[in-house]
Amino acid sequence: QVQLVESGGGLVQAGGSLRLSCAASGGIVSINDMGWYRQAPGKQRELVAAITSGGTTNYADSVKGRFTISRDNVEKTVYLQMNRLKPEDTAVYYCNANIRGWVRRGDYWGKGTLVTVSS
């Protein structure tokens, strides 16, 4: 069974940094696009950053220049380095991946990790 497990969230002061990780495991044949989304209280889930299997990246305008997404295809892991964090970055961050599994192909989600930025 395919699973995505996030780690690295926590409480940080404004201007600080955090690094999120998301590891995929289970019956995986291949992984296509991977990405990070976030959902703040009372708001819709939004794309933060995405990366293709070839390494092409895409960022939300609000995080450009501060966040960096990367992946390790051997370890089946995607990372999100978050620098110069702001209180408005506070949200639950979710990992997403388009995975071809032994059973099915589709989008998979992690359970989320909470990032809280204090002012």
End-to-end gap: 40 Å
Q: Helix and strand string, N-terminal first?
A: EEEEEEEEEEE
Q: Number of DSSP strands?
A: 11
Mean pLDDT across residues: 97
Percent of residues in helices comes to under 10%
What oligomeric arrangement do these chains adopt? single chain
Helix segment tally: 0
3D shape: globular
Structural class: mainly beta
Radius of gyration: 14 Å
Give a written overview of the molecule.
This protein has about 120 residues and is mainly beta. Helix content is about 0%, strand content about 60%. The strands form two sheets. Strands 2, 4, 5, 6, 9, 10 and 11 form a seven-stranded mixed sheet that branches. The relative contact order is 0.32. The model has no long low-confidence stretch (mean pLDDT about 95).
